[in-house]
Structures are given as C-alpha cells and as structure tokens.
Amino acid sequence: MPYVDLGSYLDDDAVDTPPIPSRAHPEGRSYRIPSPDAATGVRLTAMVSLGVDLAVGKDLDPKDAAKLQLDDDSEREFLRDVLGDAYGQLFEDGVSWVRIQRLGRYFLLYFTLGPEAAADEAKRAQLSGEAPAPNRAARRAKKTASSRASSGAAKSLARGSTVSTTSPKAPAKTA
Fold it and tell me: How many Å apart are CA 33 and CA 104, to the nearest integer?
C-alpha cells in the first residue's frame, strides 16, 4: 500500500467562533474551541447516544437516564469538557451564561454528530434554551417515528442536553 501524506488531513481540528461580545470585549472576541481529546470525545458521544435513545422513546436504564440529568456542578464540568480552555476564557471575559450554554450545546453537536448537525440546529434557533413541552400529538408521533429518529433525535438532544444554571461558578484556575 502506498504511503499517504495525512498531514493536512490530521491538521488542527479546533474551531474559531465568530466574535462574541462580553464585558471585557463589547465589540466581540473570537474564541478557539479545541476538539475534545479521545476520552472526552467517547464520553460525549455516549451521552449523545443516550439522548438519541431517549428522544426516540426508548426506555433507558435509570442509571443511564441519570447521566443526562446535570446539576450545576456537572453542567459546568460538561461545558469545560466541550469547550476546553475556551470555557475559562469565556467566563473571565464576562460572556453571558446563556451564550456559554449555547456554545456548549452547539459544540457538543459539532464534535459528536458533525458540523452539519450543529449548523442545522443553529439555523432552527433551537439553541435558545429549554425545549417546549411536547403536546399529545407530538408524543404520539414520536412513538411512530423511530425509523426516522436519527435526525429528530439530534434536535431533541440539542435542546435538552443541559439544565439551566442560575449561579455559575468561576472555572478553576489552571497553571
């Protein structure tokens, strides 16, 4: 088999955000979001898989379902996992908590389901907070839509993958 130069294929896979306004940078600043390391990527992908299963109406083991329920501390840890070092920078610059949460949801999808899934969600403006409660017809449709689940599951996961936090704590300082 001939040698293939994978240099450009394996180049830096971090993503630069558009300028995001904050207290420190009212005009906006771009942040570099690194791709998660392998262990984090596997953990995030497993979380997305559980969310997809839940979104298509699959019964989850209570232990697995508990992994999707994030308290304040685990939400901050989740966001640090997804956003890497940028989490601390966003926090220090005074970016709003809602924007940090939205970035976390966007990049969770970006790094686990791909850029297209993240872009689709952003276009639908579903990253703006909690998902509306489904009505009876939507719940019935969900039960019959399991064959079309992969695209719909990503939408549901993106809207409900983290819980809101009212009192974020500053990230731990790293040396």
Answer: 10
